[in-house]
Amino acid sequence: MGPPTVWLITGASTGLGLALTKRAIERGDFVLASARDTTRFDPFLAELDSQTRARVHTLKLDVTAPLADIQHVVQEGLAVWGRIDCIVNNAGLLLVGASEEIGAEGMMQLMQTNFAGVINVTNAVLPHLRQRRTGTVIIVGSRSAFRNEFTGVASYAASKAAVHSYGETLSAELKPFGIRVMIVVPGTFGQPMSIPPVPPKNPHADYDAARKAMAAFLEAMKHNKTGGDPLKGMDVVVDVVKGEGKAEKLMQPGSGCEWPLWLLLGEDCIRDVKARLENMGNVLEAWKEVGSGLSRSDT
After folding, report:
1. Distance from the CA of 6 to the CA of which of 85, 206, 253, 281 falls in 20 to 30 A?
2. What residues act catalytically?
């Protein structure tokens, strides 16, 4: 077992962020747990013994704040244990509705949290990681970026597709500095987020049926007891970062496996991503002749 890891986790007061915080400290690590409202940590912290409690430090952090404010919070976090080993960009919002009715304003509101927030938090920590020439950046994405061909998810799926692409390029940019990047793509884990469709400012009657179907779907999701266990899912994330548990064999030198840029969590996520890749492959094969032979030298 390696040395303890110091984690900075955004959106750590609920959901997967809280599950990751729990798993990390259970395995002897230290966590800078951040959220917009730190009082939401109180029930969780009250359950910890004094020794374990000493390995959790809460930070008041709004990922939509200006970069200078986020940098100030990161400096506060660095002062606690002297370093940050792993950033986990987990904070995010869900907005549901037909894309025409949500419009660019609604989509950009979501992008401010789900995309710009990830960039600003990461950039606030990167000088520290580059100086140390080591560290891990985790971006929590979504299978919605791969399974999005139905009404209501355009803004959320687009924001997650944006951070997926950002993470891929960031991986190449940071590799020379010994910094790893991993995009975690969860399927359905535990109690899902349930937000009713936002009442549109300018509703279109053509979307009435779709809006009704979205509301019924979200209501059904409130009672969904299937899907993955958040603690088990986040245990896998800790395994990969630390090279332990389920990931130990694959992380050994000579295993032939490289650090995973993508980590798909849950059978539903694996199924949906495979289906998207197969569909794209089929389209590519069927239409490749149409898109070929277009260079200046082709006659």
Report:
1. 253
2. 156
